[in-house]
Structures are given as C-alpha cells and as structure tokens.
Amino acid sequence: MLEQPTKDVTDLLRAWGAGDAQASEAVAPLVYGELRRQAGLALRREGEGHTLQTTALVHEAWLRLDAQRDMHWDSRSQFFAVAAQIMRRILVDHARRRHALKRGAAPTQVTLGAVDREDQRNGASGAPRSSLDPVDLLALDDALAHLAALDPNKARLVELRYFAGLSMSEAAEALGVSLATAGREWAIARMWLRRELER
After folding, report:
1. How many CA atoms lie within 13 A of 44 on its CB side?
2. If you ran DSSP here, which 8-state letter would residue 111 be given?
3. Which end of the chain is more exposed for a tag (fewer CB within 10 A), N or C?
4. Highest mean pLDDT: which of 1-5, 11-15, 99-103, 131-135?
5. pTM strictly above 0.70
6. What is the tens place of the pLDDT at every residue in 82-140?
7. CB 107 within 8 A of CB 136
8. Residue 186 phi/psi, 5° resolution?
9. What local confidence, expressed as pLDDT, does residue 162 receive?
C-alpha cells in the first residue's frame, strides 16, 4: 500500500495524534498517494454522472482527518480505515445533496461487484461475481448502517473493501483478523447486503 516503511508512517501518525503539527505536515505526502488511490476507486465505483472529483474527495477527507484532534493513531491500517469511513460519509452526503437539489432525480448508482472483479484481476481466487450491480448509494449506506448495528466488523469490512478499495489481505490486516476469517466475513456480508438491497 505504501512504499514508505510502515514504522515511519505509524510513528508520524502517532506523533500527529499526540498533537505534533509538524508530524501532520510530514505524514501528508506519505499517505497522499494512497488516499488518492482510495478516492479514485470509490469514485469509479459510483458509475456515470457523479460530480465529485478525486482531488476534491481527498482534500475533503484530509480536512476531516486533520480535524480528528483526539484520535490516537495506532497504525497506518487504522488510519486508512478511518479515511475509508470519512470518504463514505463524504460520498453519501454529496449524493444526498445532489438528490435534494434534483427532486425526483434517479438515485446515485454504485457498483459493488467491482470489488470482486478487481480481486479476480489481481489474482485472488474464489471471488464470485456479485449480483449487487448497480445499487443506490443511499440505499447501500442505509444497509451498511443496519449491518453495523448487527455486526460492526462485517460493516467495517465492506467499508474497507468498497470505499477504501483495500484488498482482502489489507482489509484483514486493518481489522486484525486472518485472511481466512476476512474471506468468510466478506462472503456473509455480501449475501446479507444482497438480500437487504433486494427488498
């Protein structure tokens, strides 16, 4: 995910969380490329018609991350997990504003199956094509909120895979679980979301 040694990034994140403004400035260029990658993946999954640009999404996410004054960063994985949550909120808020401005307009469509297809392209085995293409972003957000109430770890896994664009192994690391556990949780979460979104 990052070429910079993990320990260096983690040390800077911890210093930033402790209030070191210079650490914030030093970590920004080290994580910017990964934040752009995450934002680009999330925006590509939104399909046609979205108006938010990658740079705008990254900058808005960075402003919100920087505002996390009381955050204690434990690792770069945790940082990118929080960034994924923030990007999800930004995308959902943007979709709600667009929908409010265009009363009666078609909902913002996103494609969840893209996550599985990216795994297949990257050599991950056993990733079946999802039948969740396309879905309404606001309906997905509501479903994830419901899933989080039932099983927060599964909801976080979907968030990491979909909004942050993390691979299964990266998501497993961020959640502190084995790759096999993450794979099982992903399969269950996809089935649950499919059923929830098809209601």
Report:
1. 13
2. -
3. C
4. 11-15
5. no
6. 898 899 889 888 888 876 666 555 555 555 555 555 555 555 444 443 444 556 778 88
7. yes
8. -65, -45
9. 78
- Residue count of the chain: 199
Whole-number average pLDDT of the chain: 79
Q: Where exactly are the structural domains of the chain?
A: 6-197
- For tokens 């955050």, the residue is 71
- Per the structure block, which two tokens stand in for 189? 């979460």
Q: Which of 116, 101, 99 is nearest to 162 (CA)?
A: 116
Q: What is the Rg, in whole angstroms, of the alpha carbon atoms belonging to the chain?
A: 17
The per-residue pLDDT for range 57-90, each reduced to its tens digit, is 999 999 998 887 678 888 888 888 889 889 988 9
Q: Which amino acid is at 4?
A: Q
Q: Return the closest-CA partner of residue 90 out of 102, 73, 108.
A: 108
How are the residues of the chain apportioned to helix, strand and coil, as percentages rounded to the nearest 5? Answer: 70, 0, 30
> How many Cα atoms within 13 Å fall on the side-chain side of residue 59?
5
How far apart, in whole angstroms, are the C-alpha atoms of residue 189 and residue 186?
A: 5
Q: Tokens at residue 178, please?
A: 């084995």
How far apart CA 42 and CA 86 sit, in angstroms, is 12
